[in-house]
Design goal:
With 401 residues, this protein is of the alpha/beta class. It is built from 14 helices and 21 strands. Bound molecules: ligand PMT.
Length: 401
């Protein structure tokens, strides 16, 4: 029932399980979804396009152009139209192309353009499934945030028995339905979230800043809004924008401005998540005119401490509110995280370290551990994942608090 009105791209690749696509479409349409098939040429050797288009009510897209009319199919438009993309069956070949970005057909090109969550239901012979290459490709896709619908074990088309059978269409629909149903788990919650860097003006042309891109915080904002929360995103300067109507963005520049915005909104919020990289210090006397080298030699700038926003919220929070901090470390990450957790009176802290490749500033991935203030829960460690997937892990964790 969560699939009503959802736009689903069904990617079909060339495996014998393609015959199950007809049932999958039937179930998706029955659940109220609109389905657009994007099939590889090999898939259409297994199932006729007329069967698929009769069930979806839309022509099957397989090529970049329709040969007789010259009509161009925009993979970008299809990618943006979708609420989810499901590739079922996903062959070893397509998984490898997706993992490495080999966009030599309409399906993989659409995958690269899709902004929506992507699901793959692998289907192949048991030895191909068990091959280290396939395992590696699936791990890479999972790290990129792709949801893998694990294949079942049983009799395969080769008559061998083992793991590699595409999950049944009913189960795939169940997974999608549960995914969209998840959107409501934070309904009625109001979340204050900080993201991005702060910049501290020295004069009108120079500032002290840091390398935060805002990607981590914005990913949490989008995921929380998708789960039904009302999000107040207090953001330092970034090049990012938000797309969900459940997010109200408050733009700030300096740590002081971020502090004031947070103090104003916190009393109305149930949860605060502090993902911003706030400058600890700010120039004591910012100039209102550009400092000119010809006129004065500036060898040092006197700095004063910025207010600690997380610590201030930690002092203000009521027993009904949850406060989650972040710690960005370069060494002794867990020890430093624990110290900040207790000093700032947080309920949990998300620790990420620049010592881990692919973690921290700027990247599209992150590797985190979450330390709880509740000693019985202590520490949960996660593998390297896309920031979207990390955002989901963080919110899953917060939902348990
Ligand atoms: O934006 P990205 O490029 O995606 O990178 C994400 C990130 C690395 C910025 C993010 O994952 C992260 O770790 N954010 C916190 C960075 C940081 O400033 O950590 P910290 O250890 O210096 O601060 C500890 C906590 O206190 C943080 O929750 C911070 O927001 C908060 N703080 C710090 C200083 C201050 N004056 N006020 C604060 O509220």
């Amino acid at each position: 029932m969560n699939l009503k009105g959802k736009h689903i791209i069904l990617g079909i690749t060339g495996g014998i399980a393609a015959y199950k696509s007809a049932t999958l479409i039937r179930l998706l349409v029955k659940a109220g979804a609109e389905v657009q098939v994007v099939a590889t040429a090999a898939a259409l050797e297994f199932i006729r396009p007329v069967t698929l288009s009769a069930l979806t009510g839309k022509p099957v897209i397989s090529e970049f152009f329709t040969a007789n009319t010259g009509e161009w199919h925009s993979h970008v438009d299809i990618g943006l139209w979708a609420d989810a993309m499901v590739i079922a069956p996903a062959t070893a070949c397509t998984l490898a192309k997706m993992a490495t970005g080999v966009a030599d057909n309409m399906l993989v090109t659409t995958y690269l353009s899709a902004k929506a969550p992507v699901f793959v239901a692998p289907a192949m012979d048991l030895d191909m499934m068990a091959h280290p290459t396939t395992t590696r490709n699936l791990a890479m896709l999972a790290a990129d945030g792709v949801h893998v619908i694990e294949p079942a074990s049983g009799e395969l088309a080769s008559h061998l028995v083992g793991r590699g059978r595409m999950e049944e269409p009913e189960k795939i629909v169940e997974v999608l339905d549960a995914f969209f149903g998840k959107g409501k788990t934070m309904q009625g919650k109001r979340i204050l979230l900080t993201a991005g860097p702060t910049i501290e003006r020295i004069d009108p042309v120079r500032y002290i800043g840091n390398f935060s891109s805002g990607k981590m915080g914005y990913a949490i904002a989008e995921e929380a809004a998708r789960r039904g929360a009302e999000v107040i995103l207090v953001s330092g300067p970034t090049s990012l924008s938000v797309s969900h109507p459940g997010i109200t963005k408050v733009d700030v520049e300096s740590g002081r401005e971020m502090y004031e915005a947070c103090l104003k909104h916190f009393p109305q919020c149930d949860i605060a998540i502090m993902a911003a990289a706030v400058a600890d210090y700010t120039p004591a006397e910012p100039r209102d005119k550009k400092i000119k080298r010809e006129h004065e030699d500036v060898e040092s700038i006197r700095l004063v401490k910025n207010p600690d926003i997380a610590a201030a919220l930690g002092r203000e929070k009521t027993s009904e509110q949850k406060l989650i901090g972040f710690a960005l470390e370069t060494d002794s990450a867990i020890d430093n995280g624990r110290e900040k957790l207790s000093r700032k009176n947080l309920d949990a802290i998300v620790v990420n370290s620049l010592a881990d490749a692919g973690a921290g500033f700027g990247t599209d991935t992150n590797k985190i551990s979450i330390i709880s203030a509740d000693p019985s829960q202590d520490i949960t460690t996660y593998p390297l994942k896309s920031k979207d997937a990390v955002a989901a892990d963080i919110l899953d964790y917060i939902e348990t608090l």
